[in-house]
Each structure stands twice: as C-alpha cells, then as structure tokens.
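Quick one: ATP citrate synthase from Cymbomonas tetramitiformis, structure tokens please.
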Amino acid sequence: MQVPMDYTWAKKLGLVRKPSNFVSSISDDRGDELTYAGVPISQVFKQDLGIGGVISLLWFRRQLPVYATKFIEMVIMVTADHGPAVAGAHNAIVTARAGKDMISSLASGLLTIGPRFGGALDAAALMFMEGVRSGEDAASFVARMRNEKKLIMGIGHRVKSLKNPDQRVVIIKEYAKKHFSSTAVLDYALEIEQVTTQKRSTLILNVDGCIAACFVDMLRSCSAFEETEVTEMIENGCLNGLFTVGRSIGFVGHILDQKRLKQGLYRHPWDDISYVNADDA
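--- reply ---
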C-alpha cells in the first residue's frame, strides 16, 4: 500500500500548492511587522499619517497627500454626530435603554444608514460626476431630473438656506476651494443649487452633497487615480463608508451617554402616535 505524500512536507518543498480561499491586498501581518498597503506600521506613526492616512492606505491602497488625508479626517469630524433625534442615533439610544450591549446598540443605529439616512453621498457623487462628464448644464440637469421624477441627491435641507447656510457645508467648501487644484464637481453642484433655490430657498447643496462633490474633486485632482478608478470607488460605496465611520463616533457617544445617565427602557408616548382603526385604513 502506497502512503500518500505528506501535504505539509510537500508544500515546504514546493511540490504542491494550495489554492487561496480569498485574496487580500490591503494589509499583511505575516512578517516581523504589520503593513498597511505595504507601509510598515512603524512608518505610519513615524510619518504621522493619522486616521486619514490609514484610511487612504487601507481603502485606496495609496499614500495620499496631506491635504487629502486632512480632508478625509474633516469628513469624519463633520459627520460624527447630528443630535439624538436622527434615525440612527434614535435607534442606538432606544437599544441601549433596552439594556443591550454596546455592539448591539451600535449595530441597531448603523442598520438605519441607507438611501434616506446618510446613504445619499454615493448617489450624489455619481449624479454630479455624470453631469460634469456629459457636459450637461445645470438647468438641463435639474429639468431632466424633474421630468424623470427623480430626487437630486445632496440637494435640500429642512431649515437651512442660502441666507442661513449650514456651517458644515461652509467649512468643507472653503477647504476644497483652498486646497484642491480643481473643484469642477463642486462648482457644478453649486450651479445646480442656483437653479433649485429659485424654486425654494431650502433646496440648497446640503452637507451630504457638498462632501460628495468635494470628495470626488479630491480624488480626481490628487493625481493618484484614473477617472475609471474614481468612479469604481464611488460605486463601491467608499463615501457611505466614510459616513459610517464618522457617525459611529456619535452613536457610541449616545450609547455611553444613556448608560452613564442610567436611562430606563424607552416607551414612545401614546399622544405622539396617530392610531388608525382597520376600518379607517
């Protein structure tokens, strides 16, 4: 009876190879030192790359310029929280008050992120990019969206207007204008804003739309990516990823706050609910 060849021995000699179960290209912990996109972790700290630099390595596999990594950190900062009333924070708070653990409470909040809460960033970026790429003027773009009965992602705010701007938008917009070599997508979004605000003053470029437009300008103007790569990264959800990272900071804060205040189980007040009988529905 022939004894089968020992796999470990044969692999060591290079006689056989085992197919990989999956491929990873962003980090490697097999050597003496962990690397992010080929950069040793010691160099990450020696070069003071910061959170923005780590994200640029792990998400984009590039060491982006300082102004770009600073912008990434700014996005995380301005999206970190928007009060306890928004859907995600509300869910996280209610879950925490039900006595659930940190991770369960955080997951409850994160699961609300989507097309109506936070998820407009990627869609807005793709809309504005396509408008710039096609050469369609802002007025025609708005008219087409209206005819197709589509919402323009990144446009509109409940209370803010041109006369009462959102300071988060002001901060992001001013940084982009100062540091990016081109702000073609932001300029296009602002042209759209000039058209939409003629209909209603609150149809402004909101923080989601501003971040989306500026982020695309950052990727396009930093000379690190081809146009197709920029489109692919947006389609893959990198902007929604940034919103998720940022807003997780606020969710965790709300969860810790509720536990610190020892808040009990939440029950929604009856007088805030419109009860509809089956016959009335």
